[in-house]
Amino acid sequence: MNASPLRILITGATGCAGTWLSRLAVSRGAIVHGVALSGEFVSGVVGRLGDVTHLDLVDEVVKDARPDWVFHLAALIPGLPSKPSPERYLEVNITGTYHVLDAVSRLAPKARVIVVSSSAVYGQPKNPSQPITEEQILHPQSLYATTKVGEEMLAMQFFAQYGIHTIRARTFNQTGPREPANLVCATLAQQIARIEAGKHDLILRAVTLATSRDFTDVRDVVAGYWAALEYGEAGQAYNICSGHSQSIRNIASILLGLSTRRDIQIVETDPIPNPRAILDQIGDASRLRACSGWQPQIPIETSLRDLLDEWRGKVQTEQ
How many independent structural domains does the chain possess? Predict the structure, then answer.
């Protein structure tokens, strides 16, 4: 007798990671439900537009989905053009997470839940050249990072108090197709695509090239979420990262090397980083690799090529 297909609920299902996760889940034969504030759902997903801060809506979605697995991705991230208020960050990232966990505890208590956190919870590493493990003390340096710590604490509470199978994913920087336009790799790729199309001057502007981050392709990231939820230990946190640091200067260099133009100049608009800025973070994903075998498959060059090609297509259709 064939096993029944997995029933999956994805919050934030129309975002960058949510879209790729939806595609992965559909490709694996799951019955997929999604909820998002706006956007277009992947074909094959039973989608519902709505706000996770509304408990009644979250209850309805969980009742309809009857999930075996829940991927909680819905969150506000820094740098959004809408410039959300501090209260909105707290409402979405903490209250929204509480509503999802509360609904699962009442309506689908056997479900496995992954709460997607961020490497921002670690703050400034004591030794930037040393990969960060999940054992490092959390030291959030922004409201966003603090809300992500709050999400994690809620996941731990629902595991300890109600026995809900919660996993915490601490995702380092992501890139690749569908990366939001306000994030650094997409910002650079968009400018280059517009330069190639003759819609932008021959200057590639970056705030600073001095900072570095651990970038992983979003398609590898969502495979990491899947692996963590399938193989991870309830109550644990898992880093999702490549284990390698890339400077923004190197990211820009790779993108320029992929360009059809060879006369683009790079200009830093604020070359001296804020003294409180996190200059570098490198993650260690050995805990997830040990339990599941997961590791990134897509080189940074491929991620950036696909991102640039996506922006070339968008620029061509601009009015």
Answer: 2
pTM for this structure? 0.96
CB neighbours of 82 closer than 8 A, spacing ≥ 6?
A: none
Contact yes or no for 318/241 (Cβ under 8 A): no
Q: What is the pLDDT of residues 168-203, one digit of tens each?
A: 999 999 999 999 999 999 999 999 999 999 999 999
Residue 155: CATH number of its domain: 3.40.50.720
Cα separation, 178 vs 175, whole angstroms: 8
Kindly tell me if the per-residue pLDDT of 248 is higher than 70: yes
CB neighbour class for 127 (10 Å; exposed up to 12, middle 13-18, buried from 19): exposed
Report residue 96 as tokens: 């929204």
Condensed to tens digits (0 to 9), the pLDDT of residues 121-131 reads 999 988 888 99
Domain extent at residue 125: 7-175+216-244+284-297
Same domain, 188 and 142: no
Q: What whole-number distance in Å separates Cα of residue 45 and Cα of residue 38?
A: 14
Q: Is the pLDDT of residue 1 over 90?
A: no
Q: Are 302 and 183 in contact (CB under 8 A)?
A: no
* Mean pLDDT for the chain overall: 95
Residue identified by tokens 């999400």 is 151
Q: State residue 215 phi and psi, 5-degree precision.
A: -100, 140
Q: Based on the fold, state whether residues 56 and 36 are members of the same structural domain.
A: yes
